[in-house]
Specification:
154 residues; alpha+beta; Bacterial Protein-export protein SecB; 4-stranded antiparallel sheet; 2 helices
């Protein structure tokens, strides 16, 4: 990254260092006789995180997409995508007691574009209409300073 870029982009104290693909699964439902039109309301996306590893300054966050995974799905296809992101924390710039809250609120949003790409690619490669998951609003994580004593009005 150039010095000019660094002036405009502030590097966050928690960085994604790697992404592991745990599962990529897709199966066409050949008995499905309706138009292949995925109802995005039926997509289940879940996430979770590990405890903060103080020795290695890391936290691991998983995100999973499931669609049509019932025993006898009434969907044109079934799909499951599961990823784990590994994050490195700079404790000099980010207090470790805030890591769990950051991971719970923010880390899965960082992994979401990777989940979207895998869902898109899997469906496209299986000659299904490509799944484009909706964009999401990115939450912000801020640490609020406690208010000091108020000055009395005289």
């Amino acid at each position: 990254m150039t010095e000019e870029t660094k002036r405009y982009l502030k590097i966050h104290p928690i960085q994604l260092t790697s992404i592991e693909v745990l599962e990529l699964f897709i199966r066409k439902n050949v008995s499905f006789d309706k138009d292949i039109n995925m109802n995005k309301q039926d997509v289940i996306i879940s996430h979770g995180q590990s405890e903060y590893d103080e020795e290695n300054n890391t936290v691991h966050v998983g995100i999973k997409l499931e669609y049509g995974m019932e025993e006898e799905p009434e969907t044109p296809f079934s799909m499951r995508v599961e990823l784990v992101g590994n994050f490195q924390v700079d404790e000099k710039r980010f207090k470790k007691h805030h890591v769990a809250d950051w991971a719970k609120r923010n880390a899965h949003v960082i992994l979401y574009p990777f989940l979207r790409e895998h869902a898109f690619g899997l469906t496209l490669r299986c000659d299904l209409p490509p799944v484009i998951l909706p964009l999401v609003v990115v939450p912000t994580f801020t640490v609020e300073k406690p208010e000091g004593p108020k000055e009395s009005e005289e």
